[in-house]
Amino acid sequence: MKIWAQAKELAAATPEERNRYVDFLRAVSILVVITGHWLVVALYYMDGKLQLNKLIVLQPVTQWLTWLFQVMPIFFIVGGYANAVSLESARRRGLAYADWLAARLNRLVTPLLIFVCVWAVLAIILHFAGVSGPTLKLGSRAAMIPTWFLAIYILVVVLAPITYEAWRRCGYTSLFVFAVFAALSDVAFFAAEMRWVGWGNYFWVWLAVHQLGYAWRDGRLGRPWQLIMVSLISFVALWLLIFLGPYPFAMVGSPDIEVSNTAPPKITLLALGVCQFGLLLAIESPMRRLLAGVRVWAATVLINSMIMTVYLWHITIMVIIVALAYLTGGFGLGPEPGSADWWLTRPLWIGLLYVVLAPVALLLSPLERAGRSASRPVPAATRQIVGAVLLCLGIALLARYGFGDSPIPRLDIASFMLVVVGAAICGLLPELKKTGSEST
Questions:
Q1: What CA–CA distance (Å, rounded) separates 195 from 360?
Q2: Please, are residues 101 and 380 in contact by the beta-carbon 8 Å criterion?
Q3: Cα separation of 429 and 98, whole Å?
Q4: Upstream peptide bond of 248 is cis (omega within 30 degrees of 0)
Q5: pTM score over 0.85
Q6: Neighbours of 48 (CB within 10 A)
Q7: Average pLDDT, 10 consecutive residues per value, the chain (440 residues)
Q8: Residue 264: cis peptide before it, omega within 30 degrees of 0
């Protein structure tokens, strides 16, 4: 295959100094997230109706799986490492913050903007085709689930020069400060019932985890046995928080609609992130030796070349397949979730979704690899920050409410416009080509 040959060429040209384990963790994590999302959806077609439930509710024992599939901390750790490398490179080349931020936002926002625009057009088509508001909201909210991560991560990137400088000056103290704020937010959430304060942990928890990536980049890790001890201590802390504290067991979602470890994030995710950090970094040396081989590294390169595309579109692919199955009388959705037949068909279900996702990823992934044009003017840093904030607010609202029925009339339209306006302010909308008469 041509794409595989290209991946092998890129793999062979990789500089020796590149830490391949960073890319490997990013690639594996994305596959774990995708597989987890496809697995936990408990769809059941019966008597002409499609029923949707949570697997962790139908089979509480499956909550153990969420401890394996919750890998978002790894994304932020890898992101911290990558942002440190990027900032160091920018300093060596004498790039200003605005230039650095423009390049980072281009890579993150371009595939996101395409995804949101496609869903906006699809929502309009479905609305005029007679699809009800609640149904449209259900499908679009499901498809928008991946975007919450980018709504937070983009702002973490905007703040990266500040948090990296905090790391350089204060080291692990900077992580502890964020952790303290996260813990105080949880205290306000549970003890004082100030639920709105808890939403601040979208920053405090993930900023703390992001600092671990800086620690990795600086090599301030300790020996493997020390990392394993840190991991064990974090695991014990996580266990105590859950079984002696008010936190639910599930690390993704929750049977209890009132309390979740993820919405908003809790310090349990920070404990899980430190646990994962210790384990994964303890085996870094043997993993880097493994990745010195061409095949494993080429596969890693291939996945990373389309990582944003597969992440953004994987649930949309599932929504489309489910819609087609529903229109054909529930074909393939007959086994009751949690039953033996249902579990036996999961490999086939997940395999089918990967087969459908692959050509979509190959088609759209060149868009995420397109760099920013060197001739395009770079907006001022303040302008980019304002645009990023507006964009992330729009993405967050779409991730929470989707298209269709909204608690406020036209909220979906306003949210979409926030995304477009934010991207425009950042200078990330496609440039209009000048006509011949205009250019003469």
A1: 40
A2: no
A3: 17
A4: no
A5: yes
A6: 8
A7: 76 83 94 91 80 82 89 95 95 92 91 93 89 86 90 95 95 95 94 87 95 93 92 96 92 78 92 96 93 88 91 93 87 84 91 94 82 80 95 94 86 94 90 45
A8: yes
